[in-house]
Every structure is written in C-alpha cells, then in structure tokens.
Write a structure and sequence with these properties.
single chain; mainly alpha; two-stranded antiparallel ribbon; 4 strands; elongated
Length: 208
C-alpha cells in the first residue's frame, strides 16, 4: 500500500516563493507530487492577464465565429434548442419575467430592427414571399379589409405634408427613373404610343 501523505504537507510555489499546503495547488498527474509547480493564486493571475489580452480576445472571437458556422454545431444546437424549448424548464423560463423583459428590450434594439429590415427585404424578393403576397391579395380577408379601410384625418394630413416634401420628390424621381428602364415598361409604352398613333391617323382620315 502507498503511504498517505500527512495533512500538513506543504510545498513552495515556484512563482511567488511562498510555502503553501498542497490544497492550494492544482492537480497534475505528470509531476512527482501530483500537483502543479505554481499555486492556484499565481495561475489565476497569469490566466487573467492572458485572457484580458486583446490578441487572445480577437483569436477567441474568430474561433467562436468559425465554430458557429460549422454544420455539425448548427445541427447539434438546433436539436438542443428544440428539446430545451419543449421541456418544463424551457417553458418556465420562456414565461418568466426575466425573459419577457429581455424580449421587450431586444425587440426595440437597433440590432433587431436591422435584422428585421434585412430579413423582410430578402423574404419579399424570394419565391415564397411573392407567392404568399399574391395568394393573400386574392383572399376574401384582404378584399374585405380593402373595402373597410379608411385613412384617419391625422394620416391624411401626414400624407399631404409628406407628398409635398423634398424627400418624397427625390424618392419619386429616383423610382420613376428606375421604373422606366424596365423592359416590360418600355414594351408597354411602345405598344401604347403605337395604338395612340393609329387612332389619331384614323380620325384624320375620317375628317378628310
């Protein structure tokens, strides 16, 4: 049997030089006494300096971002989130006051607004968004809303002021310039002027 070491056994730290009990050292199987050569206090101080270094922070951030883009990590996180959200703990946390306050703050943050704006722009231009919008515009609910919708006096006043503003004029000019460059619009105007020209010629022939 291996004899047990006495409880009052001490060791000198190689960093600070103070004699301390073995409980003040981390375990290390490679060393002779199975503990580190530096005490816990010195190692914590070294770790704090290292982790506060800007170079290490940049490396850790880049590593985390690269790891989060990994497909295996995404699949694992998706499964974990689904399991957690359906568990009693997840449901209780979702309805907690702490999470409600967080959702309210996050929904009003600039980060969330920028994300919503980018997502809506991408979704509206996607096939799914276009198909949904067409189906909704043909629904009975949309038609009923169009009939009952009326602008308030405040909205009418706002629209009148905005329609005369320089911002709206600049936006309209830029939009029309882009709109008239479309091939579909060019073809429409070409056919329209050709029909108009034919009608004018026909009237002149009748009068003569």
């Amino acid at each position: 049997m291996i004899p047990k070491e006495p409880e009052n056994h001490t060791k000198k730290c190689s960093k600070c030089g103070i004699e301390k009990p073995l409980t003040e050292f981390y375990k290390n199987k490679r060393s002779k006494d199975k503990t580190t050569c530096r005490c816990k206090t010195c190692l914590r101080a070294i770790g704090n300096v290292y982790y506060q270094n800007e170079e290490h922070k940049a490396y850790q951030k880049a590593y985390n971002n690269a790891y989060k883009q990994n497909k295996q990590f995404k699949d694992k996180k998706k499964v974990y989130n689904k399991t957690y959200n359906q568990s009693e703990k997840g449901i209780a946390f979702y309805h907690s006051e702490k999470h409600k306050a967080y959702r309210k703050t996050y929904s009003q943050s600039e980060k969330r607004k920028a994300y919503n704006k980018a997502y809506q722009k991408t979704y509206q231009q996607s096939e799914k968004g276009i198909a949904y919008r067409k189906a909704y515009q043909q629904s009975e609910r949309y038609k009923a809303l169009r009939k009952t919708y009326k602008l308030s006096e405040e909205q009418k006043a706002h629209n009148k002021v905005y329609g005369q503003s320089e911002k709206y004029k600049a936006y309209r000019n830029a939009y029309l310039k882009t709109y008239r460059q479309r091939e579909k619009v060019k073809a429409y105007y070409k056919a329209y002027y050709q029909r108009r020209k034919g009608k004018t010629t026909g009237k002149e022939l009748d009068t003569t």
